[in-house]
Amino acid sequence: MGFFSSLSSLFGLGKKDVNIVVVGLDNSGKTTILNQLKTPETRSQQIVPTVGHVVTNFSTQNLSFHAFDMAGQMKYRSTWESYFHSSQGVIFVLDSSDRLRMELLKDELMMVMEHKDVVSRGIPIVILANKMDIPGAMTASDITVALGLNLYRSGTWSIHSTCALTGDGLDKAMQQLSAEITKYMESRRT
Amino acid sequence: MKTNKKDEETGGNVYAHLDKTSVLQEARAFNETPINARKCCFILSKLIYIIQQGESIGRTEATEAFFGVTKLWQSKDVSLRRMVYLAVKELAEVSDDVIIVTSSLTKDMTGREDLYRAAAIRALCKITDTGMLQTIERYMKQAIVDRNSAISSSAIVSSIHLMRKSSEVVRRWANEVQEAVSSDNHMVQYHALALLYQIRANDRLAVNKLVQKFSKNALRSPYAVCYLIRIATRCLVDDDQPDSSVFTFIESCLRHKSEMVVYEAARAIVSLPQTTPSEIQPAITALQMCCTSPKAAVRFAAVRTLNKVAMAHPNAVMSCNVDLEKFITDPNRSIATLAITTLLKTGAESSVERLMQQIAGFVNEISDEFKIVVVDAIRSLCSRYPRKHTVMMPFLAKMLRSDGSYDYKKAIVETIIAIIEENPDAKVAGLAHLCEFIEDCEHDNLSTRVLHLLGREAPKTPNPSSYIRFIYNRVILESTKVRAAAVTALAKFGAQCVDLRPSIQVLLKRCLLDSDDEVRDRATFYLKMLTEAAEGLIHNFILDGLQVSPSGLERSILDYLRSGSYSSPFDLRVVPVTQQALSQPEKRVPQLVEEEEKPKAPKVEPYAAQLAAIPQFAALGPVFKSSTRIALTESIAEYTVHMIKHTFANAMVLQFECKNTMNDQLLLDVSVELEDPDGEWETGNTVQIDKLPYGEVHSAFSLLEFPDSGAISGSLGAILKFKVMDVDPTSGEPDSDDTYEQTYVLEEVDVNVSDSVQGVAKSSFGSAWEALGDDATREETFQLSTVENIPDAVKKISEILGLVPCERSDRVPEGKTQHTVFLSGVFRGGYDVLSKATVAVDPNDNSIAMNIIIKSNEPLVADLVISAVV
User: How many angstroms away from the CA of B110 is the closest CA of chain A?
Assistant: First the structure.
C-alpha cells in the first residue's frame, strides 16, 4: 500500500477523506445502514440503540468516509448540529413505514436542511427512505410529497428508497452521495 | 549551581506558561479534516494540563471543547485515541452532554483492540450515570472476568468508583467479581477483593464469611493478603465477640514469605485495642525482624509502627530497644528521629539526657514534620517524668529560637503551654521562654495565644510585674491583632493584681491613642472597668469573658431585632452558652499518645438549624443544650433509634434518629410514643417521619414540656410506632399498597438534671462563689457506694450534675484522702450554678463520703439541682 497510495494521492487519485453526518429519528435504521456499508468481515452482529454518537469508517470507490452515526432519540437530537460544521455531507435516514410520526419527521428534516451550517455551505443531503421492504411502506415519491420536499428547491438533496437489512438501494444512494460530495469539494476548491 | 538547574527545569516545561483561552482556541483544530494526530495529541495534553492545574473552565467552553474531542474518534491513531479517553475523563465533570460518547466508548470497550479496551472502560464509567449504567451492565460483567488482566483490573477499579453513586447495580456483579478474585494476576485479585468487600461492607455476617473463606484458601497476591488483613482487623475491632480463627489468620500471616504481608500483619496486631502480651509478642518480633531489613522503607515502616504503639505497650516495645539504639545513628534522619522518640517514650528516666543530647546533634537537619514528632515525644515525656522539665525546657527554647514553619512553632508553643499547665514548677521558666519568643515572633496567632496565656497565668506568679514590660512592648511594636491581645492581657494583670492596678491604668491610657479602633475600644472599656467598676464586675467581664456560642448569639440578636419591641432590653441569658469561652483555642491531642475514643458532644449549631426549620418548635426560642447521641436500641436491631435531647428554656425536644435496616420494608408514619408511668410528663407536639425507606436515617421529634410540679428528671417508656409496607428488596418498589401497623419497644428515655445544666468554667471560682451570696445555698452529705476512689467520684458528680470543674480542681493528687472540687455551670434560663464538692475516703473501710454545697442566684434552681444528687 504505502508507497503507491502516497504516490497516487500525490496525483490526486487516491481516496479522499470525507466526514459525513448520519441523522434521523430513533429506530429509523442509521446504525444498521452504516453496518451494511462496512466490509462483511468488520460488520457487528448486534445493533443496539446508539447513545450519543459512534464514528464508523467505510469507503466507496473513490472516497473514504468517516461517518458520525448520531443517536436519534429526542434528547440527543440537539447534539446533531455540532457536527454539521465539520462535515461534507449529510445522510438523513427515515422509516418509511412510520406514518404516525411524519409531521415530527418533517420538522426535524427542515431543521437539518435549514441549519445555517448546511445552507451556507451548500453541503449535499441524501435522504434514505428506509424499511421499504415492510408491507405498506410509503414510496419515495409519496414521502417527497408528504414532507413537502417538492416545494424545496434550494440546496442539493435527493431521496432514495432503501432496505438496510438486505442492502437494496444503498449502492445507488451512495454513488449519488459520492458524486455530490466530489462535486461539492471541487466547487469549494475553485 | 542550584539556580542553574532550576532554570533548566522551567525552560524544559513547555506547558509552564499556558493560557486557557489560547489553548481552547487551539482546540478548534479538532474540527479540521483530515485530523493531524500529532498536533491534536499535543493540544490535548495542554488541555489536560491546564485542567489538572486547577484552571476553571466554564461550562460552555468545556462543552465546546468536549464536542471537539468527540470528533477525534474518526482518527485511528492509537496514542491520540488514548489521549481522547483521558480528556473525556477530565472534561466529564465540567462539560454538558458527556453522555453522548457512551456508544463510542462501548464500541471501543468491546472491540478487538486491547490497547483501547481498558482505557475505554475507565472513561465510560466516569461519564455514565445510574440510568445509563444498566445498558452497559452486560459489557461490564464480561470485562470483569476478561482474560486480559489490565482490562479486568480497570473494570473492577471502575466498579469501585461506581459503588459510590450506583451501588445497587454494582452489587449485581458480585458473581463475576467473585470469579475475578480467583484470578492468577496479583493486581486483579487485589482489586477484586477490595470490590467484593465494598459490596458486602454493610453486611457484617457476609464480611465475616468472606474473611473466613479467603483466609483458608491462600490468596496469591500479597496485596490482596494485606487487604484481607485490614478487613480482618476491622472485623476484630467491630465485633463484640471476635472469632478466634480471624486472629489466628492474622497471626499466621506473620510467617508469610512476603515482607509486606508480614509487616501488615504485625501492624494490625499491635494496633488492636485489646491484646494480651503473649499475642503481641510475635508481632513485635516480626517488626524487629523488619528493623534489620536492608530496605530503608521497611525499616522506616517498622520503626514508625513501634513508635506509634510505644505508649500502649511500653514493655513489649522495650525488647526492641537494642535494635532501636542502632538506628540512632542511621543515615536516614527520619528513621533516626522515630527511633529516638520511641526510646524517649520507653526508656528509663536516666537515659533521657543522653538521648536528648543525641537528638540535639542533628535536630537542625531533619524536616519540620519530624521535628514536630520530636516535640510531641518531649511533651509526653514531660507528663511522665515531670522532674525532667529542667532538661526539656532549655531544649524546647533552643528549638523555638531556630527557624521553622508555623506548624512547628505552634507545636512547640503548645508543648510549653501544656507543660506549664501540668507542672507548676515549670511555670516560671516556661513563661520566661515564651516571653522571649514573642519578642521576636512572626506568627500573630502564636503571639496572641501566648499573650492570652500570660494574662491568665502570669498574675499568679510571685513576680507579675516583670512580665508587663514584655506585654507592653507588644502594644508598641506589633500588628493590630497582637496589640489588641496585649491590651487584654494587660487588663487581666490589672484585674488580678490590685497593687499593679494604677500602673496598668497608666499604660492603658497610652493605648487610648492607638491608631486602630479595636485596640482603642478595648483600652477604653478596660480602663473604665478598672477605675470605676466593683470587684465582682471586674471579675465577670475581664477575667471570664463571654461564654456563649457565637452562632447562638447571632441568632438571638437577630430574633431580638426582628421582633421590633425594644422596650425590654436584650437578655443575654437566653443565649445558649458553650463550655468554651470565645477566645479559648481548642487543645490539640499530641499525635503519638494513644488517642482516646470518646463520644463527641455534638455541637449545638447543626441541630439548632434543623430544629429552627420545624415550624412547631419555632416558638421555643434558641436551643439551650443538646445532649450526646444515645442509642435506644441494640446496634444490630431491625430498626435502630438514636435519641438526642434538646433542652429549651421551658421545654425539651427529643429527636429520634431512626434508621430502617430491613431492605424489604418501607416504613410509613414513623413516630415515637412516650409514656410516663408517674403521669408527670406530657408530650406536646410530635413530628413524625412520613416515609422511611431502607438504609436511610430520618428524624422524628417529640416535644416534652417541663411539668408544673417542677420535676426536672424522670424516665419515660418509649415505643416506636409505624406502618409497614412490604417492598421489593432490589428495586424498592412497593409490592402492594397494603400496610400493617407495628410497634417496637425501645429502651427507656431518661431525663436528668444534667440536661438542664450546661457546664461553663469560671476562671476564678473563689470570687464568683463569694459574689453569689448565701441566699440560695443547699448542703448535703452522703456516702457513695458505687465508686471506689476519689477521681471516679469527682468524675461521677460532675457527670450527674452536668457541671464542669474549674481551676483544674478535677485533678486529684495521688495519695490524698480528701479532695475538694469546684464545679460551675449555667441552669437553663441563665441562672448560675456553683458547687463545692468535698470527697473524702474513710481510711478504715475505704468507703467514700461526699459533702456537696450548691449555690445559685435563684433558690429554686439550687433546690432542683441538689435533688438530683439525693
Answer: 11
Q: Residue A23 domain-assigned?
A: yes
0.90 exceeded by the pTM? Answer: no
Walk along chain A (190 residues) in steps of 10 and give the mean pLDDT of each run.
47 72 91 88 82 85 87 86 87 91 90 87 89 88 86 77 88 89 83
CATH number of the B606-751 domain: 2.60.40.1480
Per the domain annotation, does A92 fall within a domain?
A: yes
pLDDT category, B595, cuts 50, 70, 90? very low
Inspect the interface and report whether the beta carbons of B100 and A85 lie closer than 8 Å.
no
Say yes or no for a CB contact (<8 Å) between A52 and B76: no
**pLDDT tens digits along B81-121:** 989 999 999 888 888 878 888 888 888 888 888 888 999 99
Of residues B269 and B218, more confidence is placed in: B269
From-to residues of CATH 2.60.40.1480 in chain B: 606-751
- A89 among the known binding-site residues? no
Q: Which fold has domain B20-272?
A: Leucine-rich Repeat Variant (1.25.10)
In a domain, A125, yes or no: yes
Cell numbers placing B16: 509552564
Distance of residue A67 Cα from the nearest chain B Cα, in angstroms: 8
Contact B104/A85, CB-based, under 8 Å? no
Give the one of A19, A52, A79 whose C-beta lies nearest to B33's C-beta.
A19
Q: From B452, B464, B384, B459, select the one nearest B417 (Cα to Cα).
A: B452
3-state class (DSSP) for residue B741: strand
**What is the per-residue DSSP string for B606-636?**
HHHHHHHT-GGGGGG-S--EE---EESS-TT
Q: Has residue B844 got a pLDDT over 90?
A: no
In 10 A of CB B428, how many CB atoms?
A: 16
Q: Does A71 sit within 8 Å of B104, measured CB to CB?
A: no
User: Is B100 close to A66, i.e. CB distance below 8 A?
Assistant: no
User: Do the beta carbons of residue B162 and residue B133 sit within 8 Å?
Assistant: yes
pLDDT at A154: 64
Answer yes or no: do B71 and A18 touch at CB < 8 A. no
* Range ranked top by mean pLDDT from A26-35, B318-327, B713-722, B729-738: A26-35
Q: What is the pLDDT averaged over residues B512-516?
A: 84
Distances (CA, A) of B817 to B810, B820, B840, B845: 14, 11, 6, 12
Q: What is the pLDDT of residue B157?
A: 93
Which residue out of B76, B103, B128, B134 would a mutagenesis test of the A interface target, given it has the greatest number of A Cβ atoms within 10 Å?
B103
Domain with CATH 1.25.10.10 in chain B: 20-272
A176 annotated as a binding-site residue: no
**Residue A164 sits in which domain range?**
9-189
What's the CATH class of domain B754-869?
alpha beta
B189/B195 Cα distance (integer angstroms):
10
Q: Within an 8 Å CB–CB cutoff, is residue A58 touching chain B?
A: no
**Closest-approach residue (CA) in chain B for A70:** B100
Check B70 against A52: CB less than 8 A apart: yes
Distances (CA, A) of A115 to A52, A80, A147, A155, B817: 20, 10, 17, 11, 95
d(CA B804, CA B821): 10
Q: Which of B28, B33, B75 would best serve as a mutation to test chain A binding (most A beta carbons within 10 A)?
A: B33
> Looking at the partner chain, which of A18, A57, A79 has a beta carbon nearest the beta carbon of B100?
A79
Handedness of CA A22, A24, A26, A29 (dihedral sign): negative
For chain B, what is the mean pLDDT?
Answer: 80
Q: Is A177 near chain B, with CB under 8 Å? A: no
Q: What pLDDT shows up at residue B159? A: 92
Annotation-wise, does A71 bind a ligand?
yes
**B60 or B314: whose pLDDT is higher?**
B60
Contact B70 A66 (CB under 8 A): no
Residue B156 pLDDT exceeds 90: yes
The CATH number covering residue A42 comes to 3.40.50.300
Q: What is the domain count for chain A?
A: 1
